[in-house]
Specification:
Blueprint: E1 3-10, H1 14-22, H2 24-30, E2 34-39, E3 51-56, E4 61-70, E5 74-81, E6 86-97, E7 103-113, H3 119-146
Antiparallel strand pairs: 1-7, 2-3, 3-4, 4-5, 5-6, 6-7
Length: 156
């Protein structure tokens, strides 16, 4: 499966950054990818097994299930339902402390397109689109955390 990944150093501790990344109301303020997002099955917050519905800026929707949730270090998900051209999709967001007190944030996506015979043509297009979106999302999180006034103090 192709993997698309990028990372950025953000001048904020992961104990504050991780909750911002998982605050779905605040997500609309920093995440250029998301147009709408909601918990399913009556869930009120992220956690392992929680299902989430997302509408992207492209209009595509996806239902995902959180498969890993380890604050303040990592969150992982897999697609349950999504755009017709994906057979599989999964993502991981990693938050590693940096020596300067900041956080190295990595977004990693893996996917499998539906038709094996089209993969040589389709996968590079999907890969470029995901890389563009990952970079924009990372820059949005950095901007929101460092200059957007979106961070809360840990425990607040």
């Amino acid at each position: 499966m192709p993997i698309v990944e990028d990372s950025i150093l953000i001048s904020a501790p992961r104990e504050s950054l991780f909750p911002l990344s998982q605050d779905y109301a605040a997500r609309l303020a920093w995440d250029p990818f998301v147009r709408d997002m909601r918990f399913l099955d009556g869930s009120k917050e992220a956690g392992v097994g929680v299902r989430v519905w997302v509408r992207a800026w492209t209009g595509f929707t996806m239902e995902v299930k959180l498969t890993g949730y380890r604050p303040p270090a990592a969150v992982a998900m897999k697609m349950l339902r999504g755009p017709w051209f994906f057979r599989r999709f999964a993502g991981t967001w990693l938050f590693e402390p940096h020596a300067d007190g900041g956080t190295q944030v990595t977004f990693r996506y893996s996917f499998e397109s539906r038709w094996r015979w089209l993969r040589p043509l389709l996968d590079p297009v999907i890969r470029r689109g995901f890389h563009r979106d990952i970079r924009a999302r990372l820059r949005g999180l950095k901007q929101g955390a460092e200059h957007g006034g979106l961070l809360k103090e840990p425990g607040a």
